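From the shared-data thread, chain only:
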Amino acid sequence: MKVYIVRHGQTASNFAGVYNLLEEDLNENGVEQAKRLSENIKDLEYEVIYCSPLKRAVHTANIINIHNKEMLFDERLVERNAGKLSGKPWNTVDREMYWNYYNQEKYADDESVMEVFKRVHEFLNELKNKKYKSVLVVAHSGIAKAFYAYFKGIPKDGKFLKLGLKNGEIAEYEI
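Structure, as tokens:
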């Protein structure tokens, strides 16, 4: 099965360089990114869209769903919960460590990288038992990092900061 993962278009938090707010919609640039993405993927063959239920992912999915495929929402595709870091500048903490798989430090009440990866890997393990030939997943950078880990493994240094997707990007994997 082919699995395509798309990161939602840009939000105000992405533009400002702050930790995500869970419920935030696309900004104007994010809408344009999603429109460009819909053009880039119009010839992709996929049977269904799995989507994070967060507003920015749903908005992106609605824009790129030009073939009117069924959309299924899954809580396991929600972005990493930054807890009390939400809305704070990225430089509040060391981002390399924040996205290091082996880092045991808790940043207030945030969700750990291991916790995020565990729920996403459960989703992917369940997905591989379905009979689809190809699916499109619309989610977030942290979820794209978990996909990377699932399909390519954990880097020896545990660093994932640069292994996600940029807004409006797509990656392809094979289960």
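The longest helix spans residues 113-127.
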